[in-house]
Design a protein that fits this description.
The protein is of the alpha+beta class and 570 residues long. Helices cover 26% and strands 28% of the residues. The strands form eight sheets. Strands 3, 7, 8, 9, 10, 11, 12, 20 and 23 form a nine-stranded mixed β-sheet that branches. The protein has a five-stranded mixed β-sheet with strand order 27-26-28-29-30, with helices on both faces. Helix 1 crosses helix 11, helix 2 crosses helix 6 and helix 2 crosses helix 11. The longest helix has 21 residues. It starts with 20 loop residues before the first helix and ends with a helix. The structure holds adenosine-5'-triphosphate and magnesium ion. The site of magnesium ion (MG) has 3 residues, from strand 20.
Length: 570
Amino acid sequence: MRTSNYLLSTLKENPVDAAVVSHRLMLRAGLIRQIASGIYAILPTGFRVLQKVEQIVREELNKKGAIELNMPVVQPADLWRESGRYEKYGPELCRLKDRKDNEFVLGPTHEEVITAIARKEIKSARQLPINLYQIQTKFRDEIRPRFGMMRGREFVMKDAYSFHMDKASLKKTYDDMYDAYSRIFTRLGLEFRAVEADTGAIGGNHSHEFQVLADAGEDTIVFSDKSNYAANIEMAKAPAPDYERAQPNGKAIEKIATPNCVSVDEAAAALNLDSNQVLKSLLVKATDGSLVMICLQGNYELNEVKASKIEGISSPLEFASLDEIKEYTQATAGSLGPVGFKGRIIIDQSADKMANFACGANETGYHLINVNWDVDVKNYEVYDLRNVVEGDKSPYDDGILHLRKGIEVGQVFMLGTKYSQAMGCCVQDENGKLVPMEMGCYGIGVTRVIAAAIEQHHDDKGIVWPEPMAPFKVAIVAIGMNKSSEVKEVANKLYNELLERNIEVLFDDRDERPGVMFADMELIGIPHTIVVGQKSLDQGMLEYKHRRTQSKELVAKDNIIDFVISKFEN
Ligand code: ATP
Ligand code: MG
C-alpha cells in the first residue's frame, strides 16, 4: 500500500474527549471514527488490525474443531420470550419493530438464535458434541458507552456455542476453549490472566473471564501470592474474621448530631472515630418490592454480586432510590442504620464482629453511638458481603490477596441446560428419552482486544503493536523522493519486492517532511521501518528502524530484505 493511495487519517493533536490511551491512539492513528455515542466506523488501518485478530481467533478455534457460521443481528423477540430474557435483559437490549409491527431485538449475544438452530438441525445424539461460532457485530445499549472500542454499544464479538449429551462432554469442550483462549491471547502478545467469574445475564454455573492486565481496566481482579487462585473481585470470597466480637461496654446508646455528614468518613470524622467503628448501611430492593438493609463495617465496600445472590434480594442488585429511602425511613441515605429498622437486615461477617459501634439514627443529620448487635438490633442475618481488599488473607490457601485492574477480553461459560430446557432443544438419550442438551458458550470481544492491546503496548510516540496484530509489517519511508531519482527507484524496487514476498508493507511516498512521515509510521506502530535516503545510498546502505526498541542500524542495500525478515517476531 502506498500512502498516496491510502486513507491514512492520522491526527496530530490529542482528541479532547478521549479519556484513555487506547481511545486517544485509536483516533490519532486513524483506526476508528465515532459515528454516534458508542458506535464507530473502523477505518482501513483499524480494519487490517481487526482482520489480524479475527484470523488468529479463527485458526485457534478451528484447531479445536469449532465450526464457523453466521447468524442474524436482527432477531425475533419471540425467541427471547421463549428463553425468558425478553423481560429480564433490561434496557441494554435494543428492541424494535418492522413495518408489520413484528417485534425484534438487535442481538447482544446469540444463545436464543443458536438454540433455535440446534433444536431443528440436530436430530441425533450422534451429531454431538458440536461447537459452532461466528465473528459478528453485537449491539448492547450500554448505559455508559466509553473508552472508545473498549465499551461500545456496537462491537465485534466472536461467540461460540457448544452442544453436548452430558456434562463430561461439556467439560471437555470448556477445557478445550479455555486452552484455545489462552493460545489466542498468548499469540496476540497480551499479558492476561484467566480468572473465576460470575455468570451475569448469560447464566450458567461455571465461568472464567480472560482479563488483560491494564490500569485502564474497568474490572478488578484478585490473585493469591501462594497459589494459582485468581478471580474477578465480584467472585472473590472474603476471609472470615479470625477474632471474636468484643463485649458491649455497657454505655447507653446516645444520639449525636452529625449535620451534613453523607459518607461514612464524614460521620467518622464528626464522631471522632475510625471508619471501621462506623457501620455503613445501605438500602436495596427485595424481589417482593420491600427494602432490605445491608450493613458493612464502614471501611469496606459492598460486593453487589454477592448480595444479589442472597435469596429474596434483587438480581442484578437494585439500590433504593433517594425518594424510596425517604419514604421508608424518613431519613436521608447518609443517616441510615439498623436500630429500629422495620425490615429485613443482612450484615457482612466483619460487621458482625463490631461492638460499641456508631451507625445512622434513621433521622436526617444524626448518628447513634454505643450500638451493639443482639442488644440494640436483634434480628439480622450474617453473610460474606464485602469486596476483598489488597492484603486480605486468601480464603483458599495460606497466601495474601493482591488486586489488579483488568480488561475483560473474553469469557467462557458452562451454561448447563438453561436455554435448551426453556427452548426445547433436546435429543434422545440411550433409553430413547428426550433430554435437553448441555450447552456451553464462549465469547471474545474482538474490537475490545484491540483497545486492550494498545493499553499494554504503546509509548509516547504512539502504538507499539505486538507483531501479530500490526496493520503492516514494514514501512518504507523515502526521503526526498522527488529530488533524487535514485531514492525513488530504490524505494519503488524495495516496495515491489516486499509485495512479491507477501510482506505487508506501507510505502510512505508522500511529498512530506521526513519528520512528518516518521511520526505517522510510529503513531500507527508499524514494527519495522526502512528509510531510503540519498545520504546512506551514497554508501550503498539503507537505514533500518525498530519500532519497539527504537534501535537504528545501517544495512547494505542488497541485504535489506533478508535483514528485515530476520527481525520479524512471528
Ligand atoms: P462487561 O462485563 O465488560 O460488560 P460482559 O461480561 O457483559 O462484558 P460478555 O457477555 O461476557 O460481556 O461478552 C463477551 C465479550 O464481549 C466480553 O468478554 C467483552 O470482551 C466483549 N464485550 C462485552 N461488552 C462489550 C462492549 N460494550 N464493548 C466492547 N466489547 C464488549
Ligand atoms: Mg463477560
